[in-house]
Design goal:
Number of helices: 7
Number of strands: 7
Order of helices and strands: EEHEEHEHHEHEHH
Helix content: 25-40%
Strand content: 15-25%
Mean pLDDT: 82
Strand order of the largest sheet: 1-7-6-5-2-4-3
Low-confidence stretches: 1-8, 11-19, 23-27, 212-220
């Protein structure tokens, strides 16, 4: 998938094993000797869309059928080898989607490098509320300095949100790409984190290269 277009990845597109930085098996420099990237990724979306399930499946390969609402904000860390000479330390923040925590949540994604914005494919209301989340994001961060992926969760269940609705929504926001996941089956869990990590690394490298940054501005 690394060389393909990942703008709208769903269950039908992913009939292959998930690939991951973690599985690369690099045996070059030790962690202490490698170049080190540090990134902050925030999980956003309504309550019960599966943010905690996504995090637990990715970090611990665990899944719990019972819904557990996050209290405020929690985070996990993961160190990921990128190649023989570099490693990324990613802090993933799991936010509560309840309305009473929205003001506090903004404080956490204001300085983040990436956002996974989740909705539940079995819940029309969680999809309809994405516009409010997008408005919050646009009013809080500089969009073109951040990697943002729209994530449709619970792809293993019968969908209430149509592909046409999702495609139309993504088309309205050109800063969004889209991936469907299932924390229950593990579908695309590694992929969605690999994708946002690659985007953050590329963005970081562009910002560190003055000549490339100048060319980017000139091209725009």
């Amino acid at each position: 998938y690394m060389d393909g277009n990942l703008s709208a990845l769903g269950a039908s597109d992913m009939n292959m094993p998930n690939s991951s930085f973690n599985d690369s098996g690099y045996s070059g420099a030790t962690t202490e000797e490698r170049n080190k990237y540090e990134f902050k990724v925030v999980l956003l979306g309504d309550a019960a869309v599966g943010k905690t399930s996504l995090l637990k499946r990715y970090i611990k390969n665990e899944y719990n059928e019972e819904y557990q609402c996050s209290l405020g904000v929690e985070f996990e860390c993961k160190t990921i080898p990128l190649d023989q000479n570099s490693v990324a330390e990613v802090k993933i923040w799991d936010t509560c989607g309840e309305e009473k925590y929205r003001a506090m949540t903004k404080l956490y994604y204001r300085d983040s490098d990436g956002i996974l914005l989740l909705f539940d494919l079995t819940s029309q209301s969680s999809f309809d509320n994405l516009k409010n989340w997008i408005n919050d994001i646009q009013n809080t961060v500089v969009i073109n300095k951040m990697s943002i992926i729209l994530v449709g969760s619970k792809a293993d269940l019968e969908k209430k949100v149509s592909p046409e609705e999702v495609n139309s929504f993504v088309a309205n926001y050109n800063f969004l790409s889209y991936v469907e996941i299932s924390s229950k089956t593990g579908m695309n869990i590694e992929l969605v984190f690999d994708k946002i990590l690659r985007e953050m690394v590329e963005r970081n490298n562009r910002e560190d290269d003055p000549e490339e940054g100048a060319n980017e501005v000139k091209n725009k």
